[in-house]
Amino acid sequence: MPQVGQGILKGMGITLKHMFGKKITRMYPEYKRDLPERSRGMLTVDMDRCIACLQCMRVCPDHCISIEQTKRDADGSGKAKPYAIGFVIDDSRCMYCSLCVEVCPVNCIYHTEEFEAQAYNRLELARQFGERPVDPTVDPRPTVKKKPKSAKAAADGDATKKAPPKKAPRKKEEAAS
Amino acid sequence: MLSEERHVEPSDQSALTQPAAGRLVSPDIRDEFGLETLDMNMGPQHPAMHGLLRLILELDGETVVRCDPVMGYLHRCQEKIAENRMYPAVIPLTDRLDYFANMHNEHGYCLAVEDLLGVEIPPRAEYIRVLMCELMRLASHIPSVGFLMLELGAFTPILYSFRERERIQTIFEAVTGARMMFHYIRIGGVKADLPEDIPQKIWDYIESLESNFQRDFVDFIQGNEIFISRTRGIAKMTQEKAIEMGVTGPGLRGTGVDFDIRRDYPYSIYPELDFDVITDTEGDVAASYRVRIAECLQSIRMIKQCLEKMPEGEVMGDTGRRIRPAEGEGFGRVESPRGEYTVHVVSDGTDIPYRVHYRDPSFCNMQLLQEMVPGHYLPDIMPIMGLVDPVSGGWDK
């Protein structure tokens, strides 16, 4: 059969062509490519700008930001304002989702171009930014509280009262139809 | 040279007891020498296995009699975690499901929540979503072909396919900020508009891919004798069988069933785009390869249309500061590279979903293994895995 092996030979020809083409691999540790502007690397905080609003801590799905808040007259206006005396970002938990960056009202938390995070133990990955270190092993938001269903329910019900058992949504649909 | 009809219908029980083409030991000889079937575990850590999958195989000689997939080695309780997070915070989790189709996962979840909210998406955001999803389909189908060839013992195609995937990921990185875990499609739109130079970059890339595509992924593979003899007639299934097993995606279209969510249950801007649904008649591994290759060309067509038609304007709809849908249920159905990906979100009126369910095509297509593998040789399992093309994060969730 004359056609036997023709497909394989054709493939070999293509690989041979690629052999003399431009190389696309790069030697990584020596050569580092430029990261794009939007690249999401490790987080960092500019503590001078932070207003300790705790929004990043609340929005973080992985609970990787812990802030210890105090009141201090930092700008000399004679008024004690919230001040972040301790600020820790635990990189071993962070999943680089960028939700904290988006929610920050003063843009003080942002992504850097650093992405090479390595350490011998997990605690080394918790980076402290404040004056006073915060224990990163303590979960800043240990419980998940569900809000009451509507404003009316919130007005009627006591805050300490247990939420009413959940109604199956399918039932309501059936009743509506 | 080219073996025809190597496949034995697994439903045909006589094939397992009679010596078919010298493959099975005849019952007489088996009784005379006291031969037994051999139980064997393949995986969970196997160099050729897709992710963490364990197959319990019962072998008769070199022929598989029984094949039971065991899943759960990468289970992360994704659905349960989603019940404790606010609606927007679930999106980064969906990236971790099927990690070869992250954009489709995000898109499906966002469609489900938007179904609950009834929010209007700006047209530019819709175009960007479809553009990204089709790029993602290219970045998934091309490595799928590479993986299929890797499993057949050819190492070079995976290098070519990953070269293309890396280039697409570089585009994604410039748009979204990450190479794989994008967190780009948001409830109500997309995170940010495309950077200014990106449409031109995508166009240039698509042009260069088009010029290489025929050479590197069609001529290189399709005529290869080893590829033909190892994929033709393997896991051949009928249309009825495929529908019965709940197969979706290239595996289903390879049998000739003309079904595509993008056309039959249109979402986003797919009705405005001009594309064909690719089908094949054979229903074997080679057919699924041909469908994947042809779908790549359709994706290229769609990307070009998206870039040409893309309107100006906002990229984020008005969802309000807090996303708190009314009680009810929302569905999002998208055509992911592996098949139908559906998200079902149930809301109880709070800002945390009551229930999130993912119907992942990797999981549902996995049933094929149990039905299709028996009757084949042991080395034929790998091409069948290439047809099913499961992704570990998808089937375990």
Strand order of the largest sheet of chain B: 1-2-3
Question: Average pLDDT of chain B, to the nearest integer?
Answer: 84
Tell me about the largest β-sheet of chain B. 3 strands, antiparallel
Note the beta-strand portion of chain A: 15-25%
* Counted beta strands of chain B: 8
Global outline of chain B: globular
Roughly what percent helix of chain B? 40-55%
- What is the CA–CA distance across the termini of chain B? 42 Å
Structure overview:
The complex is a heterodimer of chains A (177) and B (397). Chain A has 177 residues and is an alpha+beta fold. Helix content of chain A is 21%, strand content 15%. The longest helix of chain A has 14 residues, at 6-19. Chain A starts with 5 loop residues before the first helix and ends with a helix. Mean pLDDT of chain A is 77; it is low at 156-165 and 171-177. Chain B is 46% helix and 12% strand. Chain B has a 3-stranded antiparallel β-sheet. In chain B, strands 6-7-8 form a 3-stranded antiparallel β-sheet. Chain B has a two-stranded antiparallel ribbon with strand order 4-5. Chain B is globular, with a radius of gyration of 22 Å. The interface between A and B is large, with 37 and 45 residues.
